[in-house]
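re: ur question from yesterday

yeah so i grabbed the chain u mentioned. its 288 aa long if i counted rite. heres the sequnce exactly as i have it in my notes:
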Amino acid sequence: MKRFGRPGRLWSRFYAALCLCLLTLILLQTVWVRLDSPFRPDYAMEDLSSVLASPSYTEADYHLLFLQTGLSRCAVDRLMKDPVSGMEKIKAIQHAFFADVPVTCAPLFGFLVEEDRLSGAQAPEFADLQNGDVILTFSTHSVGWRHGHAGIVVDAARGISLEAIVVGTDSTLVDIEHWRNYSTYLVLRLKDSTPEFRQQIADYAASKVCGVPYHLTAGLFSSKIPDTTDGDFGVNCTYLVWYVFQHFGYDVNGGGGHMVTARDLACSPLFEIVQLYGLDPRQWDITP
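ran it thru and got these C-alpha cells back, copy pasting raw so excuse formatting
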C-alpha cells in the first residue's frame, strides 16, 4: 500500500511546489510593478524662451520641445497661435513635466486592480484635447500586469470622456480631469483625419457605446465584432476604443490578435501622439 501511495504523494508535492512558485512569481511581479516608478527626465530642464520666440520652428526645435514638455508638433502649434499665453502655458507644462511628484498606489477593485496616482499635485494640463482623441495610461495594473486604461474624448469643450472602468459597471461618461491624477498619460489622435470626421467618431461613441456592460474578456473568446443586438455585447476599456474605431474602418490594435491592450493602442501606426506625461519621450516616435 505504501508503494502504491508514493506516486500520489509525489504528484501532490509537485503540485504544491508549482502553486508556490506561481504565487511567488505573482507576488514578485506585483512588488516590481509597485516599484516601477513613472519617468522623470534624467536630463536638464532648458530655457525654452528663445526657441518659442522664433518665427518658425525646425524639426530640431520640435524635438527639443517634445523632450522638454511631452508636447508634439500639433500641440505646440495649437498653443502658439497665441504667442503670449502659449509661451506661458508651455513653460508651465514643462515645469509640471519635470516635477518630481510622489506617487501612491490606490486600490480600484480591492487588491486585484490598483492604480498609480499622483499625490499632492496633478499631471500637466492637456494642451490640445479634441473630440475623438484617445487618452490612455499605463498606471493601472492587476496582480503585477500593467495593462493600463483607455478612453475616448467625446466632448472636449465640457471635458468629458467615454470609458469602461471596472467589472460590474457599464461604460459611462467621465470628467476628463481624473486623467491628470494618473502617474502617466498619453493622448493620441487619428492620423490624417479632419476635426469633422473625429467628431463623428466621438458622436458614435457617446450614442452607441455608452451604457454597455463591462466584459473583462470582450473580443477575446467570442467574435471580435459581435452582434450588438444579441444581448451579450460588452466592452472593456481598450476594447471600447478599438470597437469604436473599427466601426469607421480603422483597426487600431497595433499588436494584432483578439486581445487589445493599452500598449497595442499606443503602438498603432494609425495614431499620432499629441501629448505624453510620465513616459520617456525618447521611446516614442513623433515623426509626421
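noticed a couple things. The domain at 105-282 is CATH 3.90.1720.10 (endopeptidase fold (from Nostoc punctiforme)). also Helices lie at 2-35, 49-52, 59-69, 73-79, 83-98, 195-208, 237-247, 262-266.
anyway ttyl
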